[in-house]
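Q: Structure for this?
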Amino acid sequence: MHEKMLSHFGPLHWWPGDTPFEVIVGAILTQNTAWTNVEKAIANIKQAGALGPERLRKMPRARLARLIRPSGYYNIKAKRLKSFLDFLHREYGGSVKRMFREGAEVLREKLLAVNGIGPETADSILLYAGGVPTFVVDAYTKRILSRHALLDGNEKYEEVKQLFETNLPRDAQLYNEFHAQIVNVGKNYCRRKPHCDNCPLRGTLDRKAERKIGVARPRRPRGRGAAK
DNA sequence: GACCAGGCACATC
DNA sequence: GATGTGCATGGT
């Protein structure tokens, strides 16, 4: 799947963010939210000249909430950003670079303990801001794999993550690009039709697997009465 | 006007 | 451990 998507779309160069800190802010703001809305929010923070760990940490929460309004859930997200910024200040003196000097396993656990950072956000921060080879699982990952009968849909986050990490080389660049490609095509897998026959990755699986999940290529009508 | 978007925490059973 | 709910804007 990865090779097929990569050759079709080319490298996507994720994450869209100028600095590791901006990537982290984006990872929190994009929770259950369209990226275009996050861009507006980050632009507002930049315009206020506040896109830095200490400046954001010192900003009153109500003002931060106003700036990030376009990204939705702005009250809860202002609180979550503050939680992370306090953590970064407390544990690493406000230095992202110092934070990533921490061992990957330990850092992941610490991030998960921060209010507002769950598994996907933690892994996005580790992979896209820190270059740590940890696979990011999101709603699209589960939807696409389910649609291609590689999951039944009831697997938990860690199980899906392990599926990727135990079957691929432990390579941050590969994980980065693969997940980016997944998100890129994910929106084309309709949520409601369980057997959508327009799946972009049709042909990635063998014919038998495709038939099983109902995405087999339509066969050309043959014989008497066939369309011209 | 309904549906959707790169989740997460918290309450309840 | 499973399920339900609140959080909110902006694009299609």
